[in-house]
Amino acid sequence: MNIDNEGFIAPREKPITYPGKIPKFSFMIEGEEFYEINIEKNKPLDQSIIEGLNLPSHGNKIAIYDFCIEKGIPNLFSRVAILSYGSNCNPAQLKHKFKPTDLKNEPIFAIECECSNVDSAYLAELAFYGSLPAGIIQSPGTTLKAFVLFLTADQLKLVDKTESRGTYYDLVEIKESCKLANGEYLYPIYTYIPKKPFLVTEDKKPIRLEALKASDEKFKGLNQKEVLEYIFRNFFSEEESKDLALNLFNKPITKKDSRIQKIQQRITDKYSKSFDFTNTSSEKEKIFSFFTPSPIIEGSFQVLGTSIRSDAGSNYICELNSSILKNNDIANGSYVLLLNEVEDPFLDKHRIFAIQANCLKNDFLKSNEIRVDQSIRDALGLKKGEGIRIVKSRLKKPPFYERLFNYQYVFCRVKRSEIVDMEKRMVRIFQDTMEIIGIEPGDIIVIESEFESVKNRAFEISVDAVKKRIELEKKSSKAFLEAKAAGTAGGIFDIDCTSYFNLTLEGEDIPPIYMDKEMRDKLRVGFCDAVRIRRTAMNPVEREFTDFVMIIIIAMLGIVLTIPNLSFVASISIIVSIIIVAVILITMKIRHQIS
User: CB-based contacts of 571: which residues, under 8 Å, 6+ apart?
Assistant: First the structure.
């Protein structure tokens, strides 16, 4: 659907229409067009269907995840989620923001959401194009219906400029619950809060933005025309109002217009004299007590090898300067998400690879440097000296049980199962990979992607099979590139892109993991994506408990036989003590095996 043909008008073109027409469904914008996104309850968000496209490979319907791979762009969860509540819910306004830039054809995803305990209200400050814009305000019990924009780092920088971040708005994390259209609760999520005061009535109540629906509203709602009439009626005499007719706002204007300057000055003067509703730090702290400074890490960091491992244990780590950690509210030892954009030689596009790693502080590093373990560098296709982007992860510090059992993670490269029908509900990995994570063939392992984690049985794959597969990949890849150079490659070769020549580092790579399509779909990963694997807590415990069970039984029988006159309480106490000692010994043995 064409944005202009569907009747969407940007408030920048006609200020009186603010915030403009807002779709009643989730949507994606791409250039001059926008498309409806069909979202189903309890279904992963990136499996939602974009409708109306015309793609040779998928027809007019495609899942968001597949679309991102097809286009070679960051997927939803490699983007920053921004709660949008004003004209940024209007496709025409979004198109207007991006049209003059190199990002004009970059897809933007807008997903319907409901955010609790907030509402949208008018500010006492005219926008530069003439509309009276809105800001987000605390409203206990209210549920605001708005949109979440999923933006890339470059798109976010542009929106920062258009929102005058630091002058008119601050970008912050919102800690109130935000439920997406599929029923999923999204964390973390950010929004722009105003640095300017809200417009309020004589009884000191804000005026809500009527165009955005909400449940249990606490404030009266007006549209743009009505709120401007309210300003003229209360801030100007009848004679002055005639000169400031509403048709002033029916066409594009700027703050250079003397009438706009007059209106803004009168709002400022009248506001400060008539209402005791200040915008002091204490008042903002009260209103926005559920907000914290944004933890988004901006810029690209130069990659170096890791050096400090005293606090790393068996984890794969990265290191950043403590000032970066402090400024972005990242605790030492927490997870961060590392992103690298890799050129795809077969698709002539780029793919984004993402890995979560524990982040440790290293004050010997410069503010633009990051140290990254080699396994992570291999998984992301990075060489030393290259650049990498960082986003604060949803995960915090590793859970207690991981530290207790000394979990060892190994990053593996996703490959396709060799014998599909025989390899359902199982994965294959190298024997030395099994030894590193402390499992035996047939044990259940946990496989974690950026999005999901699943459990499956792991079996050994033969080295000979892998060698044959690599040779086959090299031959087919070489043939594809030759055919491509000759212009005859269209649809001839079935390449899985499993041999990423420019992803691996001179033949070095993380170990492979072979899994079928069902497993890849559950994890939402494709060929060459990196996943991390570990053993489950129960497998080694069960195995070690079997070794200890005979000792426990003999010890308990010996106590009962040698001391026949023990009371019931004493017997139970001794048995419990033996079990506790056994559990401690089991835990120590498991940790020792991995260490």
Answer: 559, 560
From the number of C-beta atoms within 10 Å of its C-beta (0-12, 13-18, 19+), residue 177 rates as: middle
Amino acid at 450: E
**What is the DSSP code string of 485-534?**
HHT--TTT-----TT-TTTSBTTB-PPEEEE-HHHHHHHT--TT-EEEEE
Contact 583, 575 (CB under 8 A): no
Please state, as a whole number, how many other Cβ atoms lie within 10 Å of the Cβ of residue 138: 17
- 3-class SS at 321? coil
Question: Would you put residue 348 in left (φ > 0), alpha (ψ -120 to 50) or beta?
Answer: left
Chain segment 21-60, per-residue pLDDT in tens: 899 999 999 888 889 999 998 888 888 999 888 776 677 8
Provide the token pair at 339: 């992103």
What is the CA angle 420-422-427, rounded to 5?
75
Show the CA angle centred on residue 293, arms to residues 179 and 390, nearest 5°: 80
> Whole-angstrom Cα distance, residue 532 to residue 202?
59
pLDDT by residue (tens digit) across 154-212?
888 888 888 888 788 888 777 667 889 988 877 678 888 888 888 888 788 889 999 99
190-209 core/surface letters (b: 16 or more CB in 10 A; e: else):
bbbbbbebbbbeeeeebbbb
- For residue 451, which of 517, 399, 523 has the smallest C-alpha distance? 523
Q: Cα 262 from chain centroid? A: 44
What is the C-alpha separation between 498 and 479, in angstroms, rounded?
14
| Dihedral over Cα of 389, 393, 398, 402: its sign | negative
CB neighbourhood size of 85 (10 A): 27
Domains and CATH numbers, the chain: 15-293 (3.10.490.10), 301-404 (2.40.40.20), 410-535 (2.40.40.20), 538-594 (no CATH)
Look up the pTM and report it: 0.55
Omega cis (within 30) before 11? no
Q: Does residue 47 sit in helix, strand or coil?
A: helix
- 3-class state of residue 81 by DSSP: strand
- CA distance linking residue 345 with residue 6, whole number of Å: 39
Q: Tell me the chain's radius of gyration from C-alpha atoms.
A: 30
